[in-house]
Amino acid sequence: MKPEISNLTIGFVPLTDAAPLVVAQEKGFFEKYGLHVCLSRENSWSQIRDKLAAGAIDAAHMLAPMAPASWLANAYAAEKFVTAVAFNLNGNAVTVSEKLYQEMVAADPDAMFERPTSARALKAVIAERLRKGRETVTVGAVFPFSSHNYALRYWLGAEGVNPDRDVRMVVAPPPFMVDQLDRGKVDMFCVGEPWNTLAEHRGLGRAIVRSADIWRHMPEKALGVRQRWAEDNPDTHIALVSSLLEALIWLDERANRMEAAYLLASERYVGLPAALLAPALVGKGALRTRRSIVEAEDFLIFHHYAANYPWRSHALWFLSQMARWGQIEAPANFLAIADGAYRPDIYRIAAARLGVAAPLCDAKTEGAPDRAWVLTEATAPIAMSASAFIDGGVFDPAAVGPYIEGFIRHNLRIDPSQVYAGA
């Protein structure tokens, strides 16, 4: 079908996981579907949000939680956003300054031998700083409604650290995070690549835990569009999803990853040497332990394990964390929000046209099973993998309220029983 509009402007933030947009542009996938795209580099997620809401851009490289967050009654955005294709699972890491790293080693050396690294040593550092009357640890996240923020909070909470009381949480855009570490404005951060690698390259910090260690297959970025735009331009939307799905399949091939690094290195996109972009792409995004460097398997998943499917259980989990940490201040119908913001029905149309297997269910249990498995409720069987949380938790999308109630550390502003109330 012919797109209703063919000239599109798509915003992105300079990150390695903007690769699907860059590949679709440079390898001709957009053009194949009759789309003429201008990629617009933006410095921050707030710019992405505001420009997309205002119609200054047609679509965007978007943090996965931004779409459901835009549907809340206390919406942070002027428009409702939807996503019909996810870009990747995993891809973030927690980096600490060299000074903080040494404090953590001194405070609890055994904890720093663990794999994955817990926040136990950090908890000891926080307590020691408090005892000595020093300022607590300052922690940077890229946006309030981001997987980075929720990963950090989950990691901290798993060891009894309350991120709203025991540390100081601040927001900084990804391209500026390393500078914030260098200037001592933050002691640690969670950010996507290549900024963790750059911090290590400059000798400023060490990546100690990956988002994949906190939640084995944590959803990260997605394509975001305005709800009204999607309704007005259904064929354009499907063409856009189709072109990106082809780019994501291309990226999933390891043989193509170095070429992707060189494409991203352009000043038009990320503007850093390919050598700094390659580690995360080729599966060698490294973590430093006290004994060795640990190479990351599947640091960035672009397509396999149904990575591109907009699981509504992902939206519901993000909403559970928004509620847990006080970002939701009034009763909300989580199911209605997830149904509106995440559109697996649109994904299935695009996947069918490409002959790509797609799930036929809209949600799944997150955090289980703890082994490889096969999704048979799909147009063709799909190989899946374990999806564990660092604390062994399991998220049942049919029991969001009880899940939220189960957290000891939280900053709840609503009764968890109200998560199915009127939006």
Properties at a glance:
D-Maltodextrin-Binding Protein, domain 2; cell inner membrane; 5-stranded mixed beta sheet; 14 strands; alpha/beta; Nitrate/nitrite transport system substrate-binding protein; 37% helix; 423 residues; 2 domains; 18 helices; transport
Describe the structure.
It is a single chain. By secondary structure, the chain is α/β, with parallel strands linked by helices. The protein has 2 domains: 7-89 and 218-265 and 302-405, Periplasmic binding protein-like II (D-Maltodextrin-Binding Protein, domain 2, 3-Layer(aba) Sandwich); 92-214, Periplasmic binding protein-like II (D-Maltodextrin-Binding Protein, domain 2), CATH 3.40.190. It is 37% helix and 15% strand. It contains 18 helices and 14 strands. It has helices spanning 19-26, 29-32, 45-54, 66-69, 98-107, 120-131, 147-157, 177-182, 195-201, 211-214, 227-232, 234-252, 257-264, 274-281, 312-324, 334-341, 344-354, 400-405; strands at 7-12, 36-41, 59-63, 81-82, 92-97, 138-141, 168-171, 188-192, 205-210, 221-226, 286-288, 293-295, 373-375, 382-384. The strands form 4 sheets. Strands 2-1-3-10-4 form a 5-stranded mixed sheet, with helices on both faces. A 5-stranded mixed sheet has the order 7-6-8-5-9, with helices on both faces. The protein has a two-stranded antiparallel sheet with strand order 11-12. β6, α7 and β7 form a beta-alpha-beta unit. α13 (257-264) runs antiparallel to α14. Residues 290-294 have low confidence and may be disordered. It comes from Amphiplicatus metriothermophilus. Keywords: Cell inner membrane, Cell membrane, Membrane, Transport. Pfam families: NMT1_2. It is found in: Endomembrane system.
